[in-house]
Amino acid sequence: MIVYKIGGNVINNPATLHEALDYVAAQVEPAILVHGGGRRANQLITEMGRQPVMVDGRRVTDHATLEIVTMVYAGSINKDIVAQLQARGSNAIGLSGADGNAILARKRPVGAIDYGFAGDVLGVNAPLLDGLLRLGLRPVLCPITHDAHGQLLNTNADTIANEVAKAMAALEHDVSLQYCFELPGVLRDINDHDSVIRTLNPDSYAAYREEGVISAGMIPKLDNAFAAIAAGVREVVIGSLSALRAGEGTRIHGA
Ligand SMILES: Nc1ncnc2c1ncn2[C@@H]1O[C@H](COP(=O)(O)OP(=O)(O)O)[C@@H](O)[C@H]1O
Ligand SMILES: CC(=O)N[C@@H](CCC(=O)OP(=O)(O)O)C(=O)O
């Protein structure tokens, strides 16, 4: 099965979003779609006269920000994607982590940084997702989770994809985790689209990070990619839609 994650820049461009949804709708094997929407959230937060705050690719989520991201991720983006998949004959069902207790999380403990209402995943309800797949439904997960005490939390979408992939692998699924974003892969030089790093292992990742080649949103994406491979996900690939379609992009290898 495929766990397919689309990021905020792909979602914000109608052409790339439609292309990605064509690809997901055309899959014959079971598929779960995880979406982000960070770029749209940034636009709305800015329009409301606030400043988006990201640290190492993760959003510092105060109360007002949580309300905005819940409306954006669990509301407009999730429902729009579900409607677009329905229009392609794909019977999608949109879920936040609170729906069917799909994803349980806890508020990230305050350390050097207080991330506010950011959630770290405690568990994925893999039997629920498996049951939906068996009904022929295509789950569409947004990055809003809950803590089982009534608190919604904001969780990085790359983390959701990794946790879902790991949980489905633990149910004996053969899982391919595909991170679709706007660039052809992890790049050696962010300005040179021909500089795709074809494979990454933990040592080369640490070296590139040290050099500053890998930064911002790529850090949680890669941390999650390595965690997925270590936990039994068969393959993790990162790239643009066309790179992923062509079997290109950056492939993650374990230790
Ligand atoms: N070496 C790198 N190669 C590619 N992207 C990188 C690299 N280092 C940092 N990035 C940044 O990471 C971003 C992708 O992370 P993010 O915005 O969280 O992705 P998504 O669109 O999936 O949400 C890219 O847009 C790019 O700006
Ligand atoms: C805690 C945290 O960082 N949450 C993310 C969730 C959305 C996301 O990950 O979206 P992309 O995939 O488009 O980056 C955020 O609010 O930006």
Automatic annotation (TrEMBL):
Substrate binds at G37, G38, R59, N154. The record marks K5, K221 as: Transition state stabilizer. Keywords: Amino-acid biosynthesis, Arginine biosynthesis, ATP-binding, Cytoplasm, Kinase, Nucleotide-binding, Transferase. One of its GO terms (cellular component) is cytoplasm. This is Acetylglutamate kinase. InterPro entries: AceGlu_kinase-like_sf (IPR036393), AcgluKinase_fam (IPR004662), ArgB (IPR037528), Asp/Glu/Uridylate_kinase (IPR001048). The gene is argB. SUPFAM superfamilies: Carbamate kinase-like. Pathway: Amino-acid biosynthesis; L-arginine biosynthesis; N(2)-acetyl-L-ornithine from L-glutamate: step 2/4. It is an enzyme of class 2 (transferase). It catalyses: N-acetyl-L-glutamate + ATP = N-acetyl-L-glutamyl 5-phosphate + ADP. GO terms for molecular function: acetylglutamate kinase activity; ATP binding. It comes from the Bacteria. Gene3D superfamilies: Acetylglutamate kinase-like. Its EC number is 2.7.2.8.
